[in-house]
């Protein structure tokens, strides 16, 4: 007899996705420049390691902040006892100012409307708990961050209905795609409670246009539903057109309070500051009832008081924040260009992007056929033979086979160059006169070289990742 709960034993966590399986394979054979130069390079992790030295030098110059001290006096006991789930006022004030600074001060945030959470993961789940019942639905444009299946569905029992976007218009949201998703939810007898978008997008690396944002606002007004804007990558925008927050469009349209109350923003310091381990996220809502309920729920995922204290001092240092935002974006842009030109050199094109820590890469021409099976086959080749862990589009619910998300900010320049070299060698071996050879030809040519890997690959086949 099973003595565990259905929640504990159900499959809805999503860890069977190729997105997470790629991470597991990477863990077994991780690349290291000296110890394991033939290992798998992790390009499936949207981490920002480009500006650590800026944070480290600030810490070296401000030892009191990390040493539990204020004006030279220890505040250890104060921090050790602090557990108010409303959060440290000084931190909330510093965080909303940082959020406004990233948005070029075009919008401002009231700290009273902010709820602190353990990362955007917790923020998105908490908001879902506040807005929807089990069996109700959120609409999300595809391709989307694979973690949403875990964050929004698993514990809440809420369903996701995809808004299908395609390469025909660079994956932008259209009115007809929104209407189709709404109809699809109705057909499945699911009441739609809201739309959730990620702006800038993970995995596309693009910012939403003013048109798209206006379209979304009109849609949620017409349907009487909520809008969640996950703006976790707002500080990574490195090229024009710049970032437009949903808050800016609401203000421009002079929306009435009833609409403002239905639009909620999610933020986190995991990407812009590169601190996913610190677990700092936030919900921003104009609806008092959402703020009150989410604050109570935040007891299950608070941000520790020493983290709040350290970051309140860091983010209150305006000279630091303005330099950090500028320099971090410059470094992201540089890396992005390295990836784009490295792939171009291998005959591979990326969707034009201006934000994020990754590119949305078009490898349709390398597929054996235009199917999701062929996409998985190519993904496995790239994982086991080229030894790069990238994320297949199907793990992001993209319906067009052949797109992959490739991350570039979690490794050194040398590692990125090596990854590009491996990719070029792979394409060159796989291509004759610019035309993609069949899978069989490639396998025959490389068979001897790959013989030692068959045992490993066969054991992987026994645990075939589930397609979505
Ligand atoms: C769009 C999006 N939302 C939320 C998260 C989760 O972030 P956090 O580490 O703050 O929980 C991620 C992480 O990759 C993400 O890409």
TrEMBL record:
Gene3D superfamilies, A to Z: Aspartate Aminotransferase, domain 1, Type I PLP-dependent aspartate aminotransferase-like (Major domain)
Pathway noted in the entry: Alkene biosynthesis; ethylene biosynthesis via S-adenosyl-L-methionine; ethylene from S-adenosyl-L-methionine: step 1/2
EC numbers: 4.4.1.14
Catalytic reactions on record: S-adenosyl-L-methionine = 1-aminocyclopropane-1-carboxylate + S-methyl-5'-thioadenosine + H(+)
PROSITE patterns: AA_TRANSFER_CLASS_1 (PS00105)
InterPro entries, per the entry: Aminotransferase_I/II_large, Ethylene_sulfur-biosynth, NHTrfase_class1_PyrdxlP-BS, PyrdxlP-dep_Trfase, PyrdxlP-dep_Trfase_major, PyrdxlP-dep_Trfase_small
GO biological process, one term: ethylene biosynthetic process
Enzyme class name: lyase
Sequence ranges assigned to domain Aminotransferase class I/classII large in this UniProt record: 41-422
Keywords: Ethylene biosynthesis, Fruit ripening, Lyase, Pyridoxal phosphate, S-adenosyl-L-methionine
GO function terms (MF aspect): 1-aminocyclopropane-1-carboxylate synthase activity; pyridoxal phosphate binding; transaminase activity
Cofactor (UniProt): pyridoxal 5'-phosphate
Family: Belongs to the class-I pyridoxal-phosphate-dependent aminotransferase family.
Protein's recorded name: 1-aminocyclopropane-1-carboxylate synthase
UniProt organism field: Liquidambar formosana (Formosan gum)
């Amino acid at each position: 007899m099973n003595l565990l709960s259905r929640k504990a034993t159900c499959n809805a966590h999503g860890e069977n996705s190729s997105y997470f399986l790629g991470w597991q394979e990477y863990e077994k054979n991780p690349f290291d420049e000296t110890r394991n130069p033939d290992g798998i390079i992790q390009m499936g992790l949207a981490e920002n390691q480009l500006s650590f030295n800026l944070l480290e030098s600030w810490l070296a110059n401000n030892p009191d902040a990390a040493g539990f001290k204020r004006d030279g006096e220890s505040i250890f006991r104060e921090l050790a006892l602090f557990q108010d789930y409303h959060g440290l006022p000084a931190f909330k004030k510093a965080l909303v100012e940082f959020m406004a600074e990233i948005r070029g001060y075009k919008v401002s945030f009231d700290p009273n409307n902010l709820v602190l959470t353990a990362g955007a993961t917790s923020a998105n789940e908490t908001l879902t708990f506040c807005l929807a019942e089990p069996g109700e639905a959120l609409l999300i444009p595809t391709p989307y961050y694979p973690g949403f299946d875990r964050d929004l569905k698993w514990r809440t029992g809420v369903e996701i209905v995809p808004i299908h976007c395609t390469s025909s218009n660079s994956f932008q949201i259209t009115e007809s795609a929104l209407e189709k998703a709404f109809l699809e939810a109705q057909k499945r007898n699911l009441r739609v409670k809201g739309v959730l978008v990620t702006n800038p997008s993970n995995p596309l690396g693009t910012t939403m246009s003013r048109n798209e944002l206006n379209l979304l606002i009109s849609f949620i007004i017409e349907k009487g539903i909520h809008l969640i804007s996950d703006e976790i990558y707002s500080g990574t925008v490195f090229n024009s057109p710049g970032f437009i927050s949903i808050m800016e469009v609401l203000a421009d349209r002079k929306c009435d309070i009833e609409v403002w109350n239905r639009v909620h923003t999610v933020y986190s310091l995991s990407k812009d500051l590169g601190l996913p381990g610190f677990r700092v996220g936030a919900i921003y809502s104009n609806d008092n009832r959402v703020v009150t309920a989410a604050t109570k729920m935040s007891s299950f995922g608070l941000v520790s008081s020493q983290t709040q204290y350290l970051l309140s001092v860091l983010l209150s240092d305006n000279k630091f924040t303005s330099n950090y935002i500028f320099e971090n974006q410059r470094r992201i842009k540089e890396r992005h260009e390295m990836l784009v030109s490295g792939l171009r050199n291998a005959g591979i094109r990326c969707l034009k992007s201006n934000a994020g820590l990754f590119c949305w890469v078009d490898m349709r021409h390398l597929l054996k056929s235009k199917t999701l099976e062929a996409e998985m086959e190519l993904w496995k080749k790239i994982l086991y033979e080229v030894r790069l862990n990238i994320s297949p589009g199907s793990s992001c619910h993209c319906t067009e086979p052949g797109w992959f998300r490739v991350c570039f900010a979690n490794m050194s320049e040398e590692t990125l160059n090596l990854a590009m070299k491996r990719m070029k060698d792979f394409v060159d071996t796989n291509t004759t006169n610019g035309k993609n050879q069949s899978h069989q030809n490639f396998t025959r040519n490389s068979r001897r070289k790959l013989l030692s890997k068959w045992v490993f690959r066969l054991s992987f086949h026994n645990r075939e990742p589930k397609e979505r």
